[in-house]
Amino acid sequence: MTTAASTPDLERQLEEYRRELTGYCYRMLGSAFDAEDAVQETMVRAWRNLDQFQGRSALKSWLYRIATNVCLDMLSGKERRTRPLELGPPATADGPLTTLPETAWLEPIPDGRVLPRDGDPAELAEQRETLRLAFVAALQHLPPQQRAVLILREVLRWRANEVAELLETSVASVNSSLQRARASLDATEITPSEPLQPLDGEQQELLQRYVDAFQRYDMEALTALLHEDAKQTMPPYELWLRGREEILRFWAGPGAGCRGSLMIPSVANGLPAFGQYRPSGPGGAYEPWALQVLELSGGRIVGFNAFLDTDRLFPLFGLPLRPPD
Q: The CATH number of the domain where 180 resides is what?
């Protein structure tokens, strides 16, 4: 039977919410790939239950209710995704390189998968703030229900009564969950970082200097760009480093194979990112090595995050497997 609810028009309406639902599910799950799976499952459940949809005005809240249930199901019984710097104290440049499976780590996400192409600059800036790696990592410390409440209320600006209806609970329960979630976030150390600002001349100059210095592997130039208390992570390695001196010692030692790398700019989690291609042998060949995501503050690099799962991340970010000639 064909109904108004099953026409291509409704399909288009559902697809209009895919991007913002992906952003919601990513903040809930901490994984770009899990978020895409959750949104796809949300769309499937929506189609299967069209008879429960009572009107266009309720479409958004109906989809968010489904997406929330999907995320809560996916989180049930799972360990939270984390960052290496949450697992223990910093290591030294010559520390052992042990790994954990990709399911253990917080993963980056392209801005284009979660932010509107055209939007109010102020609103986009706010959304980028809540996509930062440190903020999404902090969200993972919250129990799933609290996490949903905080994202819906603080990030998406839903009213308390709307959240209560979505979660089938009371306004008092929503307000209590929000209060506890805020207290937990306040107790969590969140590295300050500035979102990518393409129109900010000083920030763009800093990034240009970084690319130039890293491609030349100029340790002196890189010293001037790194904050003295900068942090480095390299998932899937558990090892993380703290302090400019230790990071540069790693780059000159175990990381020396990055000398001569090429970089392609990208954007991840509202932050500047680069696809890094490392020399792979004679003849000028290069191989994908890392998606670098930088955290900036006060004109310096305060966080250097190299995600090494390039087989999955480079296609996700639209980065070629070979750098352009």
A: 1.20.140.160
